[in-house]
Structures are given as C-alpha cells and as structure tokens.
Protein 1
Amino acid sequence: MVDRSGRLLDLDCPAVFKQKKQRITQELSRPQHLYEDRSPKGSIDQAILPLVGYINEQHGLVTTSSCAGRISVFLEGRKTQPIATAKSKQDNASLGGMETAIATSQASNGGHSAGGRWLYVSHDAVEIPPSWSAAETYFGNLYGLSVGESEGMLLTHADFRCTYFKFEPMILHILSASLQHAQKVLTAALTSGFRESGAVNVTPGQGHTAMPMIAVRSAGLALESIIGGTSQIVGENHTRPGSMVSERYLHMLTSMANRRMKENTSRLQRFHAALRELCSPTESHDAAPSHALSCRGTPSDTRDWEDANDRRERLKAEGLRRKLELRKQPKLTDDLPVDQDGLEQMNTLFQ
C-alpha cells in the first residue's frame, strides 16, 4: 500500500519480515561493549553507521550486513587440511594404539576458516608519513611483513600461502518487505555509482510473499595484489610472512587504495542522499519541492556527479533546444534581392 505522498506503508510488510526486522534491530540496539558480529572488527563501521540507522528506520527495510569499505592485508590459510584415514586407524591399532603420521590432504580454499588471518585492517585511509622514504620499511612493518625475507620463501611448496593487499569497497545487504521497497533502494544505488547492485529472492514461493535481498556494491573499485607469502607451517600463528615487493610498491598500492577509499566514501554519501530523497514523502503530487528527484531518480543535490545515461539525455535535450532556436531565426537570404539575370546565366551553363 502506498499513501498520497508515495511512501510505502508498513502495512504491506509480511509477518515474517516484521519478526526478522525486530530481531535484527534489537541486536543492533545493544550497548556497544555487548554487541559483536562476525566481521574482523566485530562491530558496525562508524562511517556507515548513520546510513544503517536511517535504513532501519524506514518501513519495509532492514540491514542484514554491512561494510563501509576497508584496506586490508590478509594471509590466506592452509590449502590442504590433514585428515585421518581408515588405513591410518588400522595402522594405529596394529601398532598398539601408537599414533602415526599417515594422513591424506583435503583441498581447502585457504580462507579464514582454514587458518588464514588478517595482518592489517583499516576502514579509513592509511596514513602516509610526509617524510616517507623508499629506504624505510614503514609499510612493510605496518602490514606485518618480514621485509628482506623473500629469497627464503619456497614458492613451489605445496602449502605456500600468499599474502594479499586488498581494497574492498562498501557492500551493504538490505532485506526488503516487497518488490516496491526493493525498487527504491536499487534506484538509489544504481544512480549513486553502485553499478553492480542487484537483488535475489524476487519471486514469491509457495504460500510466501517475495522479500528481495538487495546487495548494494561496486566491484569496479576493488583492488587486490599479492605482496608476499610464507611456506612455513610450524608456529604459523606467530609467523610474519615475507615480502615479495619493494617498499616503493607498497607505497603505490597504499596511495591507490586511499584514492579509492575517498571515491567509495563519496558514493556512500550520494547513496544516502538519494535514498533520503526516494523515501521521504513529498508535499504534493502537483507541485514537487525544489529538492525532489529528477525523472531518473537522481537528487538535485548530487549535481557534482552525473550518471552516463543522464548526461547523454541532457546533451540530447540541449542539442534539440539549440536546433529549435536556430530554426526560429530569420534566414539571411530572405531580405536579399534575387538577381534574375544571373540565375538565367547559371541555368544555361548546366543545360
């Protein structure tokens, strides 16, 4: 149901959605020292907290996970996991219960669950000292790398684990009560630069109303580069992986990540502004306020950034307007006398 202002009412929300939203908002309302989630930080990023709070205040919307964007260094986990086999158990029994080293390897994705760990995580731009010099090891130490140990790494070792430098832009998952609720969020996301945004669960199941899950994201800003690794297994929780790149290269990656973090923050702010425009009620259908959305859903207070489709339509309209203005102007030949003798001479030349 939609009221006269165009706002989606909470009466449309299924009971299942209301229960989920109540559970999520109750969890988020806990004191900060009691709240903990599964992210490396363990709490909601400060940069995205106002946006998350605003979304959760809207009818038919609730956030399920969020990240404001981060710069990180990650050491992947073991790619093989030792598991005991039936043969090893039989050998253990034949040896009187003595444990043997007989085992096989199970493939793994090398993620956090396989022993991977974060060496550095920041949800803000990385501070670069004004007096930084390539001769220093500032970034190597900052990112938990053992500088100068790249030659000792066994790159061909079966369990060699890479260290990645990453920039991951904002990602936000929002559960919506209906397709109408989801459409507003997607419109705001796509017009704010989050071009890879989308939704799943858009078709209703048997006896269930569709509750689309929206992912607001921009994969084009992502950055990932291998900067080191380790093949050591013993004492891995205390191992500092070696660096495979120079300090100057780390400086370049950090500068690039900082620039992308700035653009990511700008897009987050545009999305917040666009969502406010779309979710806020208008005062009248006949006379929209000056800050109302354009026909494509782009708020006027984001004129410093223009979508490619909007720019193309604007240039087309300006071209048509100039063409009409030229047609209205009098032709230069209308007031000039016509030389009939000259015309007759021209005609005889082409006969």
Protein 2
Amino acid sequence: MKLRSGTHIDRQLEVNPKSTNEIAQQNASTPLLSLPQEVKNQIYELVLGGHFIHIGQGIIKTNYSFTNVICQAKISEEEAQRNFDSEDPANISEEEAQQDFEPEDPAKWYVEKNEYRHYQCDRDHTYETVNLSLLRTCRQIYGEAKYFPYSTNTFSFIQPGVIKEFTVWLERTSAGYNKAIRSMHIEFVIACFNDEKRWESSIKNLARRLPNVENVNLSLDQRYILNGCRNPTLFEYGRGNRMRSILLSLRTLPIKRATFEITDARGLRESQWSIVPEYEQMFRWTLDEKRVWARYVKEALCQPNK
C-alpha cells in the first residue's frame, strides 16, 4: 500500500508463505519483532489506527485514485449524537435566535453546534493524511500489520459514487481488505429525488461488499419538502419514505453500535428560495420529530435478530 500527498494507491506486497517462517526467524532478534504478537498488535493499532478518515476521489496520471484526509472536526460523532439527543429547544441564546434566515429559530429545527463540523476537513491545505510508513519497513511487518489500517480506522464518505467505487476497488484487491473494515461514517445530503436513487445503489453495494462493519455513524441532511411522511407514526409503518428503506438495508451488517442524527440546515441554507412558510408548517419535521425518526432507525439497525 502506498500513500502520497493524500492519495491512496494500493500496491500489494507479495508475501511468500514458504519463506515467512524463515524471515520471522531472521527478524526474531530485532527489538520490535521479538515482542509477543499481542504486544505487536497493540503497537500496530496505535501507529496505524484510531483515525477518522474522509475518503474522496481524484485523478492521478489519468487513473482514478482515492484521497484520504484525517478528520479535523472539533467534536466526535458520539458527542454530536449526545447533542442531537439532548438539545433543549428552549435552551438557546438570544443571539442564536437571530442567526441566519430562520424566522422561527427558537422552535429549534436542528442542533446548530453539530452543523458543518466536517466542512473544513479537506479544504485546509494543512490537512493530515494517514502515514503507512510502518508497512514499508520489512516484509514481516507488512504481513502482520497490513489489515490494521482497515480494521482500526473509521472511513467517512459524503459522496455515493465514491462509496461505490471504493467498495468495488477493495473487493477487487483480493487481499480481503473489504472484510477487514469495521467502522463507517456516512453523511447523506439529499437535495433531490435523484440523490435518493444514487444513495440507494451505493448503500446496497456497501452492505454487500463490506460484510463485517460493526460501527456506523450516520448523518442525514434532507430537505424537508422531500419527506414522504412527516408523522412519526406513519414513518414507523414505513409509508412513503424511501430513505427509510435505504438506511434499513444496512441491517444485513453485524452492527453493534450506531449513531444517527437528522438535520435540514444545509439544504435550507443552500436553497433559500424553497423556504415557503406554508410548506414549512406542512412538511418540515420539528427536532422532536427528527429524534423519533433517528431513534427508530438506530434501534432497528442494532437489533440482534434481523
């Protein structure tokens, strides 16, 4: 695996099984490789894992490649979930109530402190990328640690096309990297019905090609005019909401932990023309209604018997 200027290019190092034991015996006298395997695994995880990585796509020498950027958000997804679950609609300052264009901001349609937390992660030229130098030190370390960058990091996506290409590429490496991934973050931005179609294809692809994902962090920014059923009771019966079926297609995965927040702030900011008071009252979910939506999906994803 090679990493250059934020670009992820896989060049698999050949490991000859017949010579692996001989190499291990020759390296047994080195301080690192003489350690017990459990200790080495802890070192590999500390060096190669623990990151929240935004995956994008670029072109290098006319070939598509994947870029990676370590997240710079000030709050974690778990903290964002706590904010979403506990934000008190009455607990906002007078300054917050006057922000932006929402005439009824005190009604608290979304959690302001969670908004745009990942927006600058790949726009700052000082961004940090994953360092895989350890894997290039010797053949034995590569053989022992090559799966750690996949199994001990969280991979983040905001573009459905990138998810599809990334999962297909992982599976085609034939090294089992797709089966090593355990943690994902997906930020859905739904501005039109075509977005739902693109996400539907990508999520079904993900669920099929990354079979061992156990932790999912989901964020849905959906223009309220698209919500098929505002009433949470109707939502629970699955009437008229395509995103529900898209999200629940992840239930085929062995999910143990999930976070899920819902907002409509980004879509509103980027499409101020669509803010029609009559439509807002008719279709826009309150923060409490969004919580019902999110709680239902989280509980469904984590059910032991799916």
Protein 3
Amino acid sequence: MPLPVSFFTRITNALPSPNQAVRLIRRWVWPFAKVFFLGHIIADYVGLLPPKTRGPSMLPTLAADGDMVWISSRYRYGRGVKVGDMVSFKHPCVPDAAAIKRVVGMPGDFVMRDVHDGRNDTMLQVPEGHCWVLGDNLTESRDSRTYGPIPLGLVVGKVIAKNLPGFNFERFRNNVQRPPPDA
C-alpha cells in the first residue's frame, strides 16, 4: 500500500534547507566545538588547575591546608624538567593519587639517600628515565627516600604558579644554579 503524499511532504518540510542547516551549525554546533577544542588545548598542553594541595611535605612553599596550583603540561613525562623544579606526578605507591615534590636529581646525577638524619650517608646514582624528588619539609615528607626514584613517565607537569587571594598568583622560578667549576 503506497504511503500518502502528505507523509513525504511532512517529512521534507520538517527537514531544514541546506542554508538553514549551515546556519544551525554556525549558531549552535560551532561555538561548542570551539569551547571543547580550546578546553582540550588548555588542559593538555598549557596547564592544569588540579584540586588543592594537601599535607605538610612542601611547607613553606605550599600551604598544608591547600593551595591551588597551576601545572604546565609542557613538562609532561619530564621533558625540560631541571633540578630545582617542582613537579606534579602520579604517586608511585597510591593508585589514582598525585603528589608535588621538588626535583633534586635527574638521570645520571648522584644524590644522598637520607639527607635529614646524617646517620646514613649512602650516595645513589639516579637511573636513566627517573628523577629523585624531595619535599621541602624533609621531616614530614614521603618522597624518593621512601619509594625511590620516580619514573619520568609518571610526571604530569611542572608547577609554575599558585593562586593567591583576589585573583592573583605567585609564579615559581627555579633559582638553582650550577656550582662554579673547581679552580
């Protein structure tokens, strides 16, 4: 049984014309696509604003009760990270947790295993593809002294700033300099 002509007429009248479809895309779809694309670029390549920091391990640089920090993803997987930089990384012992520590050794560097007690002065060489991290507050920090060198593949990014009240922020600069050559 053939369908009545009015059925096809109703369907074709309900569809937008090609010009209307283009206007619809420009008006509704394109702005959402731009926001999604911009969000992707910012989150994956420029920086992340994760939840507040917790714990006393980075005192006095970061507050124990929670500072909001900006993390640059340009330094993901340890690219361009240097000794003295603060990095955010996936915690090697706690699944789905992140940590922020200061890098004190890169691949090939020699570091002291226990720097705070003075009893054990074991020197270690940081293996290739790893870095040695410490908290600024050595007595309250679980860091590479506890779980060893961390793989550079766990590095999420470099901490570049922290938020301050009133929409201000404080940039972190690496002031570590190479020692002068022996005379």
Protein 4
Amino acid sequence: MEKEKASLLSSISSLTSEARAFKQHTSADKAIRYEVRTAALALADVLEHPVEQALRIIFESAPPLFALRIAFEAGFLNQLGDGRTQTADSLSKISGADRTLIARIFRILTASKMVDEVDVDTYAANDLTRALLKPGIGDANTHGCDNVNPIFTKLPDYLNQTSWVNPDTYTMGPHVFTWGKPLYKRLQSEPSKSALFNKIMSGFKQNRENWVDIFPFEEKQKELSGHGVSADQGGVAGPDARAADEGDESKGVGRVEGLCDRDYGA
C-alpha cells in the first residue's frame, strides 16, 4: 500500500506542476480553467468516502466564512497585508484580542488555505490572502455573513409557510420574509448597507473577467436572430449589458437597465 500511495502522490505532484503552468498560460481563460478544476475536484471526491464527504459538507461549510468575518472585523487579516509574518502573540498585542482565540480562528483559516501557517502559531499571507484583501472582496464576506446567510437560515421556514412553492415574486420572496422589505428597498433605507453593497459591486468590476469575454455571446445572439434582450440586474451587470451591445451582432437587441430599484415580479 505504501508503494501505491507514493505512486499516487508522485502523479498528483506532477499534475499540480502542470496545472500551475497551465493556469499561467495566456490562452487559459476562465471557462477553460473551470473545466479543468471541475475534473480536479472530481478526483478529490473519489478519495473520500460518501459519509465523510457528507459530514465535511455539513460541518465545514460555514466555519471558514465566519472565521474570515471575525478576522476582518478584528483586523487580524489586514496585519498580514504588508507581507510580514505575524504570530498569535503579536496579533494579540496589536488587537488586544485573546491569543488563544486568535490561534483558534487561524486554525480554521489555515486549514481552509486562506492563510499559511509557516511555523507554530505563525502566519503569512498567500495568494488567497492577498485576493481576500482586494477592494470589495472582504466586503462581500461581510455582506454574505450579515445579510445573505440569515436568509438561508430562514429559508426552510419561508418555504414551509408558502407550502413549498417556488418563490416567483421579488416583493414577497425570502429576503422580504427575513428582513421585512426587498433588498434594494432595504439598501435605500440603510445607507451603511448600501455603501457596503456598492463597494462589493465596484470590487467585482475591478477583480473579475467580463462575462462578455467568456460567454459565447456572438454565437448565442445569432441563434436569437436579433430578438434577444440584455438586462442589467443591478450593480455590476450594467457594464456587461452595455458591452454586449457594442458589436454588430447585438443590433436589434433590447436592453433594460436599472432594475435594482424597482419591484418587479421576477
């Protein structure tokens, strides 16, 4: 068995090197990388027993998000942004937080590969850390934990009360059930949450590929024969909708923008 294990590890190591080189190739766009990554995840799933996989999904999905939320709120993660390593003790002195608590939070972050542990209770930023510190990305974590996750928590109650009917109205959906009003109405009435949401949208625009460059828009548009509609669903989608209209293939395509501040039925 040791021989088989060594052979597998050697093969995976070689594949990792090839995948790293593949990712750096200029022609490996997001769609291609996603396809290869899906195959790599399928390989990881093969090595796990179904019960182990089920328990991991149940118990390991939420803790990394909330550990990250705490690390942002307490300022732990930002201390790694300048490239210097930090220990649980040094972070305790900087923040005033209990060093044991810091070590426990970072145990989750390092297990999730969001931070590297380079020595016992000693932490350093990696590529994922630097990505999380980009404008808007950490704000997305805050928004998700504080505003989105509570909706998922209440979703079983909502669906039970609606006799398990698929939500089809914006004004009576899960967000209203949880928070009392639709998302964009809530943002209009709560400036701090609106500012946070706008930071997220700006961050997404800066840090992602445009879907027009990924989705086979021209091919799909020809199938529609000029009868399609491009819609700005709010926030970051507007520039994409406009970009999609710039080519000759988009002639005859209607565009609807600014849906986020109206109560539409869908």
